[in-house]
Amino acid sequence: MRTPEGAVLVGYDGSGDSELALSWGDRLAADRGRPLHVMISEVDPTQILEITGDWHVEKMARLRRDAEDRLKGARSTQTSVEVVEKPPSEALITSSQHASLVVVGARGHSLVSGVVLGSVSQHVARHAFCPVVVTRPPRDPDSTRVVVGVDGSGGSKRALDFAFDHASRSGGPLTVIHGWRNLSRGTGVSAGYPLDSDADEVNMAERIVSESLAGFAERYPDVHVTEEAIPVAPHRVLADASQSASLLVVGSRGLGAFAGLLLGSVSQALLHHAECPVAVVR
What we know:
Pfam families: Usp. This is Universal stress protein. Residues 8-136, 145-282 form the UspA domain. Belongs to the universal stress protein A family. By secondary structure, this protein is α/β, with parallel strands linked by helices. It is built from nine helices and twelve strands. It has helices at residues 16-32, 53-71, 88-95, 118-127, 154-170, 198-212, 216-219, 234-241, 263-273; strands spanning 7-11, 36-41, 79-84, 99-105, 132-135, 146-149, 174-179, 188-190, 193-195, 225-230, 247-251, 278-281. The strands form two sheets. It has a ten-stranded mixed beta sheet with strand order 3-2-1-4-5-12-11-6-7-10, with helices on both faces. A two-stranded antiparallel ribbon has the order 8-9. Helix 1 (16-32) links the parallel strand 1 and strand 2. The protein starts with 6 loop residues before the first strand and ends with a strand.
């Protein structure tokens, strides 16, 4: 079975985090009018000892039944379940070429090998061909706030597109944050401009936020937006903001506005330290 074109693709392994991923995937697919495709994947069957073969087949069949049972109450009108005899990362990344979005749990378990899905979520977030949502229970389950990190790059522009769309569909407020390392103790440079003082840095940071947001108010008049420019390293300020967020959105890669950091390092750090689901957008 091939992943339906434009589907929301969910990695499922029966763990609590993958149950949360399935719930998230169903909601996102229904909101976007997309098919929901659940993928159950495992290690290469040639790696399984013959003595455990029957056990493995039964486990995979039970996982399929569990997924199908959960989909009986799905909001999505078009659902499918696929069992793939490939390692989870490989299966999800390959299938992401046809998906509009991949949803995986932050951690889980590999039923045969015992490998935690934490490594899978990081690998998929790094290499998938479409945006990836890595789910975990939020620290504040009552929050509806969406937080997005911006740095003026093309990657953060795409993150803004995703964040505004999600906030508009969910009805929650949006907080747009630009964090940077303070360089005014010496002379810094941002986007080609010399920065000689705290005031220069703050002015440039506020300019990055305002220019990044150009045109979004007209496209999403229903979204209440708060802007924040904070002289704290991006991964720290965004991790702090995630404590009271329902979703944190970052670009997969970008330019750290003042320090020249790749946003790739920020997104990877947030996959470890965020306290709500994280969307990595490319």
